[in-house]
Sequence to fold (359 residues):
Amino acid sequence: MTFSSFAPGRVELLGNHTDYNEGVILSAAINLGITAVGNPRSDHRINLSSSGNPDATVVGDPAMFEPSHGWANYPLGVVKTLTLAGHSIRGFEAHFESNLPTGTGLSSSAALEVAAGSLLRKMFALDIEPMELARICRRAENDFVGVNCGLLDPASSVFGRRDHAIFLDCRTESLTLIPIPSGAALLLIHSGVKHELTGGEYNNRREACFAAAAQLGIPALRDTTSPAVEISNLPDEIKRRALHITGENERVFHAADFLRAGDLVSFGRLMTASHESSRVNFENSTPELDTLVKLAVATDGIYGARLTGGGFGGAIVALADPDLMDEASESIISRYHALTAHQGIAYRCTIGDGAILAA
Ligand code: ADP
Ligand code: MG
Fold:
């Protein structure tokens, strides 16, 4: 018997670097993702294939991390994590097909894990709640692949819903879906400059946030507000880092209210304000991302735009009117090329279903 699953990529709409500060985030699953098709075997052999990637075969203990398995370590990590959680998994075949670009901040790694996890859940009739599936995928990436990602990526890929934003509280790990008024599409534009989330810059920002919380005498930046940080005597640079986080949390709460009220214009303004805070306070933008945002917000049909993901390169996300998106996208890309000589790459997305709703 053949089984299948689909797991989408996700876009961070608002809430930049708030995860490790125990803050809040708004994201959305997109209509691009990874499909998995497979069937169980009667032995303990695992055969994995993915279009455009080398095949991988594992016999016996899937728990062995092998650098030579490359991409297959993501699904094998899920197998191992499921096994450690007490689920019984035999051999199987699985093939993955993707229309999601990798390494652009759309979280193809989480999509791959969730596609694998949800395929295995069906194939072996595993008794796993959706949130547990998201946690297992996070653990697979943390422990098995060795990347310290949060719950947002796998949870968005599991729980996303067409025309809904996902509100995640990273402290309580509770998740709420908020309808997005019809008439909203997402335009992602990669700057054409490689996403360089080097450990150095990322860790430096994390440490500044933790130092700010320690100096303010609070457990995490979640526990303070922008006005309180403003009047604190934190040194200038650390104060700006902290203001980015408190501002992002505040913008996420306001943006959720705007969505509930169907106000895309105000939501878009907060996205643009988020980018400005990245540029000035957190200094995780780049001249190319700044140019893209500036061009996007001056274009008809764009409600707002900001860098998405870690920063220091990568992509912007713009909230767009679907009827004007194609024209807007072409205009931004051509003006961006004229100004910077970089070739931006546009992905026109809609907000789609996560793995539990998709076929
Ligand atoms: P992101 O999650 O932002 O796309 P990552 O570096 O975290 O970037 O994950 C990208 C990696 O995930 C790829 O290098 C590859 O190993 C794996 N991957 C993603 N999609 C696929 C796919 N369709 N087939 C095989 N491997 C994939
Ligand atoms: Mg990833």
